[in-house]
Write a structure and sequence with these properties.
Elements: H1 2-25, E1 30-32, E2 37-40, H2 47-53, E3 58-61, E4 64-68, H3 72-82, E5 89-98, E6 101-110, H4 115-132, E7 137-144, H5 145-151, H6 154-158, H7 160-168, H8 171-178, H9 183-188, H10 192-202, H11 207-222, E8 227-230, E9 241-250, E10 258-264, E11 268-275
Parallel strand pairs: 1-5, 7-8
Antiparallel strand pairs: 2-4, 3-4, 5-6, 6-11, 7-9, 9-10, 10-11
Length: 276
């Protein structure tokens, strides 16, 4: 009986993967598959590479660094640059590994600074979740990578304790570290729904970023996500996000079923992945 159940679960996962690739092939995405093992030269690693390398399975041989794939976006950006791949829209399926986890990801990337085209990729992904996986998306959370960089000076932003206190929403500890009158500490006292108005009043130079957040909120609203809000204190999961980043959740779920955001490749880009 257990073997039958295992077989059924395996077939279900494979059918979801195939359904995902079919869904996006029909929408003119180029399908891509990459090797699990990546090779690097230490001198060529970017700051994002070094940041990700801390949590990767890696080894060194004959002066070359090898690592298991831990992130699809970085792998695709490197592959696209190395082989001069000109596809603007890419879909992929495959596992990623960190030192403490293995996850199967189904994701998409668009290499375009056109926000309307990025909206369409978001729509395609939400459509797959709703129509193919029959997922009810209960919550959407949006933030912008530039907000914390504007609200903190360079030393504060690079302070690991400050980042940890923000993630933990530890108001007392953050106030002790930065001072109770620090704008970010005062912002933490505000409810997420009121943070945008608070920043518009006290930090008008953030108007462009706040407007972008509102545009992406409207887009998620129009796609049928039940409750969408901005969390201006959210810390992005990946360091390479340079603009909007998004999490979408099923009802009563603690972890997001889908995550993504804007980042910089040769030009502004957007990617989103779901985990099964």
């Amino acid at each position: 009986m257990n073997q039958i159940r295992m077989n059924q679960d395996l077939m279900k996962i494979k059918q979801q993967e195939l359904g995902f690739l079919n869904h996006f092939q029909q929408r003119n995405y180029e399908l891509i598959d990459l090797g699990l093992v990546e090779s690097f030269q230490w001198k060529d690693l970017s700051q994002d590479d070094l940041h990700l390398m801390e949590r990767r399975h890696k080894w060194e041989r004959n002066g070359t660094l090898f690592a298991l794939r831990s992130d699809w976006t970085n792998a695709i950006v490197r592959y696209r640059k190395k082989y001069q791949l000109h596809a603007d829209k890419i879909a992929y399926v495959g596992s990623v590994y960190t030192v403490d986890s293995e996850r199967k990801q189904l994701g998409v990337e668009i290499f375009s600074a056109n926000v309307k085209e990025q909206f369409k990729v978001l729509e395609d992904m939400i459509c797959f979740l709703q129509q193919e996986l029959h997922t009810t998306l209960s919550v959407g959370v949006i933030s912008h990578n530039m907000l914390l960089k504007k609200l903190l000076n360079k030393d504060e932003h690079e302070d690991e304790l400050v980042q940890q206190y923000i993630r933990d929403r530890n108001y007392d500890a953050l106030g002790s570290r930065l001072g109770k009158d620090h704008l970010l500490v005062r912002l933490m006292k505000e409810a997420p729904a009121d943070q945008g108005d608070y920043l518009k009043k006290h930090f008008p130079e953030l108007a462009d970023q706040l407007k972008e957040i509102e545009q992406w909120q409207d887009q998620l609203d129009s796609l049928g996500v039940e409750y969408v809000y901005s969390d201006l204190l959210a810390v992005p999961v990946q360091s390479y996000y340079k603009g909007i980043f998004i999490h979408v959740y099923e009802k009563n779920a603690v972890n997001p079923i889908g995550s993504g955001g804007q980042y910089t490749s040769s030009s502004k880009a957007f990617g989103m992945a779901i985990t099964i």
